[in-house]
Amino acid sequence: MTGNLAILWPMIVQAFLTLGVYGVLAMRRKALVGDKAALAAWRSTGIEPEPSNAAAKSVANQFELPVLFYVVCLGLYIVNGASWLAVIVAWIFAASRFAHAVIHLGSNRIRQRMPAWLVGYLAVLVLWLIFAIHILGVAAL
Asked: Is the pTM above the cut of 0.70?
């Protein structure tokens, strides 16, 4: 497997993570059907009741930092810049997002969630630096 093709696997894992979080949200919202008052309040105000609130916020989180991840991975793939270092960093990002989602959907403790988010943030930053350096190197040729 070339480094280029390997960069797609962490993206696939991230996509399945997002779909899994959507599944958790659907299950938690389904539980609202039995609670007519909570369901009516949600319909009229749009305010997500517990326990679906954390799942809804976790879904939203999957479309924030991960968007930059998808873009840089596709950019690295297109310009043949997906070195093995980039692939390893992409896997670190995917693992950090998994940890972040598990914490968010579980205990939801900020002290635990923040380090997982920070690892993902730094991984995306490194990926963008790798991309920029690769582009600069190609442009210098």
From this structure: yes
